[in-house]
Automatic annotation (TrEMBL):
PANTHER family: DEOXYRIBOSE-PHOSPHATE ALDOLASE. Its main location: cytoplasm. The gene is deoC. It catalyses: 2-deoxy-D-ribose 5-phosphate = D-glyceraldehyde 3-phosphate + acetaldehyde. GO terms for cellular component: cytoplasm. The keyword DNA damage does not apply. One of its GO terms (molecular function) is deoxyribose-phosphate aldolase activity. It comes from Lactobacillus ultunensis DSM 16047. It is an enzyme of class 4 (lyase). This is Deoxyribose-phosphate aldolase. One of its GO terms (biological process) is carbohydrate catabolic process.
Length: 237
């Protein structure tokens, strides 16, 4: 598949999830998203109203992170926070699974959590992304989660919060994609800071990239295309 610069931009969830982010930081994030035509701004739930107002009239989404970054909330709390984020303008949701329940092999709980989160998002025609936080999981746990997702069908499964012990890995993206196939998309996030890492994740099967280095990556891809005198880059997947 051939990707233009704008195609690449539309893969990027432009991210600022820092606890000390100011209103000026959020405005900068939204202004950059508009300038580069990124797909979404990824922000903490409390920033939903401000960012959705900044992005009003554009095709750039406001993505609220739910139970972030630990996932240690009840299903009911996660659903409530999701509804609150949507009420305040969020039109994409990324939530962190309950890793404790996964480690306990309480797969019915994980499935019910995913079903309820997907249901509330899809009721509002909003994409739901399920954050695995792979740095804490075994390969078998990643595979099991992906199998549950293949059955429940959220819009995306996501590698990481970026706040764990490590971020996205190519091998994990490949594993996740190998399980869900075309039924669910994969988002790579965490530690993706340059264009080589970005392209590697896309080649591995990622359809969305969450990163705070979106501007740097965009500019690097632009220079690469200019140097090669091309208007697109072909990627085999």
């Amino acid at each position: 598949m051939k990707y233009t610069l704008d195609n690449f931009a539309r893969l990027i969830d432009h991210t600022n999830l820092h606890a000390d982010a100011t209103e000026a930081d959020m405005k900068k994030l939204c202004d950059e998203a508009k300038k580069y035509h990124f797909k979404m701004v990824a922000i903490n739930q409390v920033q939903s109203k401000f960012c959705s107002e900044q992005l009003k009239g554009t095709d750039i989404d406001t993505g609220a992170a739910i139970a972030f970054p630990l996932g240690q909330q009840t299903i009911e709390s996660k659903v409530f926070d999701t509804k609150d984020a949507i009420k305040n303008g969020a039109n994409e949701i990324d939530y962190v699974i309950n890793i404790t329940e996964l480690k306990a092999k309480n797969y019915d709980y994980i499935k019910r959590e995913m079903q309820e989160m997907v249901a509330v998002c899809h009721e509002h025609n909003i994409p739901c992304k399920v954050i695995f936080e792979n740095c804490y999981l075994t390969k078998e746990e990643i595979k099991k989660l992906a199998e549950i997702a293949k059955e429940v069908k959220p819009d995306f499964i996501k590698t990481s919060t970026g706040f764990g012990t490590s971020g996205a890995k190519v091998e994990d993206v490949k594993l996740m994609k190998s399980v869900v196939g075309d039924d669910v998309k994969v988002k790579a996030a965490g530690g993706i800071r340059n264009s080589d890492d970005f392209l590697a994740m896309v080649r591995a099967g990622a359809d969305r990239i969450g990163c705070s280095a979106g501007v740097k990556i965009y500019e690097a891809l632009k220079r690469r295309m200019e140097d090669d005198h091309v208007d697109s880059i072909e990627i085999e997947r």
